[in-house]
Amino acid sequence: MTVSNARAKPSGSSDGASVNRLDRNARLLAVSFAAMAGMVDAIGFLASGGFFLSFMSGNSTRLSVGMVDTAPYLGMVASLLASFVVGVVVGSLIGRKNTLSPTKRQAIILMIISALLCAAPLIAGFGFLLTGLCLAAFCMGLENTLFEREGSVSFGLTYMTGALVKIGQGFATFISGGPRLDWVPYLLLWLGLFSGAAVGALMFGIFGLNSLWLPAGYAGVFALVLLAPRNHFDG
Fold it and tell me: What 8-state DSSP symbol labels residue 22?
């Protein structure tokens, strides 16, 4: 697979509309990584009994409800939230190493994701399910920094509320006589996560938590692609 010239197109905007500033290759990669996040989230949701590894808005609601109800799952959901945030911190710190090119930074992040997603089912298999799930949530935090620009995440790869908002806004713009297809990249991003989650759910029914090895391999392959000559993407 060849990934080339996948840099963000020039734009004066630095908000969530960043998806529309990416060229075709980078958009395809963003959709692919959203699918990877969907796989991990679905597998984690089924393995944990209803908690998320990438959708932290849902976990935040579960945490607040659990606090009111003094639910026994408070420790789990708090650990997943913390793991995700730490993943974002680590990914952002890697991105601020001036000695690393954007391509190498992204490859390093993907290699870490691949290694930890491989380890997570093994650790869970020894009876440490929460630790394995937290490693996967950490990976989802890391993933969100893949398209980081100037210290800020350009757009989320593991949560789609913003993408759905952009789809609605795009339709409104079209109805008002503006550009007709600005919403399409966000629809593709949502479809990536949706389809990935479906694959993850199917895989979990067959392989259980070992299904995480699929997105682990996925991340590893893309890390190798990024390290190949002249292959890069940038957010």
Answer: B
**85 exposed, middle or buried (CB, 10 Å; 0-12, 13-18, 19+)?**
middle
Q: Under a CB-based contact definition with an 8 Å cutoff, are residues 158 and 34 in contact?
A: yes
Which of 82, 60, 57, 62 has the alpha carbon at shortest distance from 72? Answer: 62
Q: How far apart are CA 11 and CA 14, in angstroms?
A: 8
Number of neighbouring beta carbons within 10 Å of residue 225: 18
pLDDT in tens, 1-45: 434 334 444 333 333 446 666 666 777 888 889 999 999 999 999
- Summarised one tens digit per residue, pLDDT across range 88-127 is 999 989 877 767 787 888 899 999 999 999 999 999 999 9
Spatial separation of the C-alpha atoms in residues 185 and 170, rounded to whole Å? 10
37, 126, 131 from 138: Cα distances, Å:
12, 19, 10
177 CB-near residues (< 8 Å, 6+ apart): none
Residue given tokens 């650990």 in the structure block: 79
